Amino acid sequence: MIAALVPVKRLASGKTRLARDLDRGALAALVLAMLEDVVAALHAAPGVGCVAVVTPDPEVAGAARRLGARALLEPVPGLGPSLDAAARRLAAEGATGLLVVLGDVPGAQAHELAQMLDALRELGGRGVVLVPSRDGGTAALLRVPPFAIESRFGPESAEAHRDLAKHAGVPFRELALPSLAIDVDSREDLEDFLAAPSGGPRTRACLRALGFGAGG
Predict the structure, then answer these.
(1) Residues of the chain under the 70 pLDDT cut
(2) pTM for this prediction
(3) What pairs with residue 72 in β-bridges?
(4) DSSP class of residue 70?
């Protein structure tokens, strides 16, 4: 079973680069709208057996459950360690592969996520499939088995994941998927996301309500 895992930070502390444009309540609404779009895309992607959200925030966990995802409250500090702790839980429960998709890529679309699973099958069903974000980070990472390489999410993490796969000698494929390219961290990211032709309907509706895309 391929398990999908979506990491989301605390609502009270995430998205600091957007704090100049949105107050904390608006930021929380945006984060939850993005999560809803990402979870919906994963639920619609063929080949994904379950969807889980890993977070230290009980409010995010509650939202995940309402979206039909499993909530994994994980207090471990740091994105990589919290992802690995959640991955160990899922692997112990039978997950044979892990697809991590960041919670701030609201443009994610099911048909492009399915391309990652297709690429894995072309690798023989084992290995690493990487989708970089446009800023050099990692938007999505598929691993079979779940610990084929370590998690190194963060700035310049795409290069780190490439190097880890090379040194581990595991089959590797990298895909450029437009719907996953924009991870929303700044006002420029918001504007570029809105300029994209499709994807992220809940996030678009939230941004319209906040004044973006309508002269805001």
Answers:
(1) 213-216
(2) 0.95
(3) 54
(4) E
